[in-house]
Amino acid sequence: MLLRALAGFSGLAAPAALAQNTLPSATIELGSETGNWGLTPFAAIPTIAVRPEDRAAIRALEDQHIKARRVFEDKYETELRALIRKQAEEREVLRTRLSAPR
């Protein structure tokens, strides 16, 4: 019974302790869709396209952006792997040079 009382008390005290130690939160506007415009790399087009050719044009542009982003990400990953390999080889050369008998 005492354990239940302690468990109940600790369950109530923990949120109160966390609330005292939290930093001030961001403004409410930042959580809204309009508050995020300009903070994200892609902002939704604020107009509603009802014509099929408009939707097709928007989707084509989005596809083009996604493809360009993937090409960039692949290039970045390839160059990063090459840099990591080069640095590992340089460390290995230095290690063998330092461990060689003099």
3D architecture notes:
The structure is a single chain. The protein is mainly α and 102 residues long. The chain is built from two helices and no strands. The chain has helices at 2-21, 52-99. The longest helix is centred in the last third of the chain and has 48 residues, at 52-99. The chain is elongated and about 80 Å long. The chain starts with a helix and ends with a helix. The mean pLDDT is 75.
Write the layout of secondary structure elements.
Elements: H1 2-21, H2 52-99
Quickly describe the structure.
With 102 residues, the protein is an all-alpha fold.
Number of strands: 0
- What is the general shape? elongated
Structural class: mainly alpha
- Rounded mean pLDDT is 75
Stretches with pLDDT under 50, minimum 5 residues: none
Write the H/E string, N to C: HH
Distance between the ends:
74 Å
The percent range for helix content is: 55-70%
Number of discrete helical segments: 2
Task: Report the portion of residues in β strands.
Answer: under 5%
Radius of gyration over C-alpha positions, nearest whole angstrom: 28 Å
Largest sheet: none
Which characteristics define this entry?
mainly alpha
